[in-house]
Amino acid sequence: MPETVAPALTCPLCRVDVPASRASCPGCHLPISDVRRHASRGRRRSWARGLVVRLTGLVLYIAIVAWSAWQLPAALPFVVPAAAAGVALHGVRGRPWLGAIAFVVLVVALPAVLAPALGIGSFSDLTAWINDPQW
């Protein structure tokens, strides 16, 4: 019966290939449990996953802005900057949770703070311009 070879892992500290059957990394002596937890299993898979995460973020925030422009045009002054922050964090930097938190804070907390001023001044002028049926 042929022997099965354990796949090599890459140590996150010293970037040495470590057989999964070893007790620790031969270069830095990091325990194999930590090497398994933090090791990259291949550049192609992690690169592809990162690309999928970024593209998903771009599509998600573009869809949010499009839906908001269609259903809630008065919310665009809050949604567009929040979506820009989400795209920057999720789509560019690859941090989906941080992008989602920034989006929620800008869409929920900012209007709550600015609620007393929403009916007067520049916000009402902007809302009137967005809701203008001529465009």
Automatic annotation (TrEMBL):
The chain crosses the membrane at residues 51-69, 75-92, 99-123. Keywords: Membrane, Transmembrane, Transmembrane helix. This is Zinc ribbon domain-containing protein. It comes from Nocardioides zeicaulis.
